[in-house]
Amino acid sequence: MATTEPAPPRAANRLVERPLWQALTVYRPLTACYALALFLAEREHFARPAVAWAFYAVLLPWTLLTLPRVRAEARCTRPFLVADLLLALTGILLTPLADGAARVASGVPTLPSIWTAGAVLAWALKGGWRPAAAASVLVGVANVVQRGTPSQSTLHNVLLVCIAAIAIGYVVEVARASERTLARALEIESATRERERLARDIHDGVLQVLAMVQRRGTALGGEAAELGRLAGEQETALRALVRGGPPPAAPRPGDSGAPLDLMTLLAPLAGARTSLAGPGTPVPLAAHAARELTAAVAAALDNVARHAGEDARAWLLVEDETDAVLVTVRDDGPGIPEGRLAEAAEQGRLGVAQSIRGRLADLGGTAALLSVPGQGTEVELRLPRPPESTNDRKDSAR
């Protein structure tokens, strides 16, 4: 399948270029008026002032009517740039005819004067430093031709325009490349976060059901064993998909709503082998945060059930601090062997990496895991409270 490069950002979104285009819209009319002022101040010395009048009769309306063209990259088309540069070159080459060869040789300004630089800079903003360099060379050649011989002042002015245009064109190219890289990085980050979220949801539901069916089917034998084998194959395929494939976009339910009591949500997780201890008062959290924290605790307890053995016990401790909520999940199982978590992540088993740590990271919290072989495992989930919630609690405590 053919791959394509990401499309460059639209001109309206190019924050670096926008001020440059705005500056060009101011520069062009000001320099056109400046060129006309120079002519009016020296018109008595012109050999053929009618030629100059004819040129300015085109330059001034052209400058005003084309201002919308130089306000953004999308409107500044190549045909317009060619016509704009041809007008500047025409004005330069008409200077000896209008002003006389003797005055031109003495170093008087050309008819378009510094307006020409605006035409070159438009090429730089549109196409980068290479078109800007080409336009500068054409302007330089036209200046040498109208002078007759290359003078120091002519070469100096041409060199300044060329350097400025190339520098601006290079900056524009770097800015566009940076914005493309940033846009691509944001797309990758968004896709990665969505894949991690979906991996957590799959791990909490589908994968665990398939694993349970596989274990039960194998234990029962007969037709159930075949069902267990198929469930095992589907679990393996789904884990591979979670590890490597970009998931489709999906809405995230429960992102809004009234605060929920964390103790109420955790209560169903307690049982004969799981003890729950916490404050005697409600522990309110934002609805989404409360549900995600509860899901992380459930994932930790599921790991206890799957890896610590059927006789293992678990203890849940909820601590409602001023600026954070702390939930500790501890078990008396055999612990986690060194390197097992990294191995599980490589195999696509993302219980700790995504269902626990990933959830807390998305909420701005942390998940710390302490496990000593033979002495059980302890998972500490810490979720900071929003600043406004912390301030409210401090006020109520007073």
UniProtKB/TrEMBL annotation:
<dbReference type="InterPro" id="IPR050482">
    <property type="entry name" value="Sensor_HK_TwoCompSys"/>
</dbReference>
<dbReference type="Pfam" id="PF07730">
    <property type="entry name" value="HisKA_3"/>
</dbReference>
<feature type="transmembrane region" description="Helical">
    <location>
        <begin position="155"/>
        <end position="175"/>
    </location>
</feature>
<dbReference type="InterPro" id="IPR036890">
    <property type="entry name" value="HATPase_C_sf"/>
</dbReference>
<dbReference type="Pfam" id="PF19354">
    <property type="entry name" value="DUF5931"/>
</dbReference>
<keyword id="KW-0472">Membrane</keyword>
<keyword id="KW-0902">Two-component regulatory system</keyword>
<keyword id="KW-0812">Transmembrane</keyword>
<feature type="domain" description="DUF5931">
    <location>
        <begin position="11"/>
        <end position="183"/>
    </location>
</feature>
<keyword id="KW-1133">Transmembrane helix</keyword>
<keyword id="KW-0418">Kinase</keyword>
<feature type="region of interest" description="Disordered">
    <location>
        <begin position="374"/>
        <end position="398"/>
    </location>
</feature>
<protein>
    <submittedName>
        <fullName>DUF5931 domain-containing protein</fullName>
    </submittedName>
</protein>
<dbReference type="Pfam" id="PF02518">
    <property type="entry name" value="HATPase_c"/>
</dbReference>
<dbReference type="InterPro" id="IPR003594">
    <property type="entry name" value="HATPase_dom"/>
</dbReference>
<feature type="transmembrane region" description="Helical">
    <location>
        <begin position="46"/>
        <end position="67"/>
    </location>
</feature>
<feature type="domain" description="Signal transduction histidine kinase subgroup 3 dimerisation and phosphoacceptor">
    <location>
        <begin position="194"/>
        <end position="243"/>
    </location>
</feature>
<keyword id="KW-0808">Transferase</keyword>
<feature type="domain" description="Histidine kinase/HSP90-like ATPase">
    <location>
        <begin position="291"/>
        <end position="386"/>
    </location>
</feature>
<dbReference type="InterPro" id="IPR011712">
    <property type="entry name" value="Sig_transdc_His_kin_sub3_dim/P"/>
</dbReference>
<feature type="compositionally biased region" description="Basic and acidic residues">
    <location>
        <begin position="379"/>
        <end position="398"/>
    </location>
</feature>
<dbReference type="InterPro" id="IPR045975">
    <property type="entry name" value="DUF5931"/>
</dbReference>
<feature type="transmembrane region" description="Helical">
    <location>
        <begin position="79"/>
        <end position="98"/>
    </location>
</feature>
